[in-house]
Amino acid sequence: MHLEILVEEPSAKEALKNLLPKIIGSEHTFQIHPHQGKPDLLNKLPKKLKAYRRYISSDVRIVILVDLDSEDCNQLKRKLDNMAEQAGFRTKTTANKTHQPNFQVLNRLVIKELEAWFLGDFQAIHSAFPKVPWKLRNKKQHIDPDSIIKPSKALERMLQKYNYYKNGLQKLDCAKKISAHMDPNHNSSVSFNQFKKGISAFL
Q: What is the pLDDT of residue 99?
């Protein structure tokens, strides 16, 4: 199986480059396509899906991953599903409703930002940035990271407190360092676990 993964920014690509082999193993392949933010991805998505539909082979699956930010979860998910279905694909949502196991497109939302996935694995943060005290692992932001309004700011404040990224969070660098230590089987972010569950359904 081969995964074509569309993400909204380079930092998501860097994180998934480290995370996906831990989820799908070495026998499957993937390619990640970053965009210049969510608007860029959503604007290009209908045409990209139609292009995929014309040449996609039976062993290829498509994954679309975007941040929820401040949008309505159900509306954004429905929008993504509609785009895929209008291009002629079966989504996981449709497969669930019709009780048919096979689907070609997985739409997943990061709630609310990619950094929530990092906050959901404190061990990875501590390994990447050892000056962050282990005692912080029981703080609410690590137990329920999806509830944080702005996870990127929460992560930035924590790292700056311990003398990392004094000039502002470098998202690309941070994504590389933390994801390298992340364990997909131990993450408190619900949206990360939904992503992992969806990917695993392809296997």
A: 80
Residue 19: per-residue pLDDT: 98
Question: 158 and 148, same structural domain?
Answer: yes
Same domain, 104 and 57: yes
> What mean pLDDT do residues 166-180 have?
97
How far is the C-alpha of 55 from the C-alpha of 153, rounded, in Å? 41
- The tens digit of pLDDT for each residue in 123-166 reads 999 999 999 999 999 999 999 999 999 999 999 999 999 999 99
Q: What is the pLDDT of residue 98?
A: 83
* Domain hosting residue 57, numbered range: 2-112+189-202
When pLDDT is averaged across residues 158-182 and rounded to a whole number, the result is 98
What would the DSSP string read from start to end of the chain? -EEEEEESSHHHHHHHHHHHHHHH-TTSEEEEE--SSHHHHHHHHHHHHHHHHHH--TTEEEEEEEE-TTS-HHHHHHHHHHHHHHTTPPBHHHHHHHT----SEEEEEESS-HHHHHHT-HHHHHHHSTTS-GGGGGSHHHHSGGG-S-HHHHHHHHHHHTTS-TT---HHHHHHHHHTT--TTS---HHHHHHHHHHHHH-
23, 95: one domain: yes
Domain count, the chain: 2
